[in-house]
Each structure stands twice: as C-alpha cells, then as structure tokens.
Specification:
- By secondary structure, the chain is mainly beta.
- It is built from no helices and four strands.
- Helices cover about 0% and strands about 60% of the residues.
- The protein has a four-stranded mixed beta sheet with strand order 3-2-1-4, with no helix packed on it.
C-alpha cells in the first residue's frame, strides 16, 4: 500500500517530452509508481 498518492498531476519527464496527466505513488519517501491510474493508499492529495 502506498503512503501517499498524488492524483491527476501534470508529469514532466525532464527530457523535453510533452507532459502527461497521471498519478504518482510514494512509499517510504520514494516514488514507486507513475501511471495514469493508481489506487490503494493511506493519504490522497
């Protein structure tokens, strides 16, 4: 289970590609997932 889920964020890859909207999952202070749709976490933002 994720500690934190950031939903519908605008995600930039840092390489100049077009940004995408998606979810970012964080566990133990580290990004563990970047995808279009995540579920199951302790806190939602």
């Amino acid at each position: 289970m994720l500690d934190l889920l950031i939903q519908n964020g605008l995600i930039f890859d840092g390489l100049g590609s077009t940004p995408v909207i998606g979810d970012i999952g964080i566990q133990n202070g580290r990004i563990v997932a970047i995808t279009k749709y995540l579920v199951g976490c302790v806190m939602y933002i």
